[in-house]
Amino acid sequence: MSKRRRKKKEDSHMDESWLLPYADLLTLLLALFIVLFSSSSVDAQKFQQLSQVFSGIFTGGTGPLEFQKPADNEEDHSSDQPDNAQGGMMDSEEITETEKELETEKIIDEMKDASKEIFELEDRQELEAIQAKVNTYIQKNDMSNKFDTALTSEGLLLTIRDNVLFQSGRAEVREADKKTARELAILLEMDPPRNIIISGHTDNIPIRNAAFNSNWELSVMRAVNFMKILLENEELDPRLFSAKGFGEFDPIGDNGTDEGRTLNRRVEVLVLPRTKADE
Hints:
Strand 1 and strand 2 (155-161) form a beta hairpin. The chain is built from 9 helices and 5 strands; from the N terminus they run H-H-H-H-E-E-H-H-E-H-E-H-E-H. It is α+β, with helices and mostly antiparallel strands. The protein has a 5-stranded mixed β-sheet with strand order 1-2-5-3-4.
């Protein structure tokens, strides 16, 4: 009788330890279905977050409740912007860069213009100094009625009346006037040297002799012969000199009067600005 009661008591206290692994199994199955459901949604960002969660579970802690929370995505989210937004940003950056380049070019151009103005001012001051030196020579030798100087846009212009150097209808510099030409050559010594143009001019009275068939030929040879006297000065560089003949076609006076024709018969020495010579 006592054995039957003991057995009945033992049956009423059956071991329930199997419930714990069973519950864990159900929990794992539930988690598995949740994972499968979440994975079925094609969302790359969610899938990456889920991957980070599982990575934290398996590497960051000892249990499901101890994994570290994945850090917020600190990457640049500019890639999340629509393509047109990115294009807009790039266009804006390109525009800004273009504006900077244009501003830089503008500043460079302004600096070049300012530098050019300074250079032209210094060049003009040098020409004025040469003009003053020639004017001093003219006054000292009482030749104001035979020589004239002018500072023009083309350079420093020295005008010499033809009766100072030549006989009427002749192209050779008179022997007595070669000294004047050589003294002018000294005045043309410059450091650094400049380009110089010698030009001959006549009136419109036709000339026909054994030496020349036209005033044009006479004007050319007068310029060349006067230049030869100047270049006897070894301080002058022949490569910087040139000669021209205009004949009667570049008058400065009225060929209808004796006074005007006298003005037109001349030799001109043009000292070029450095800017003009560089062109």
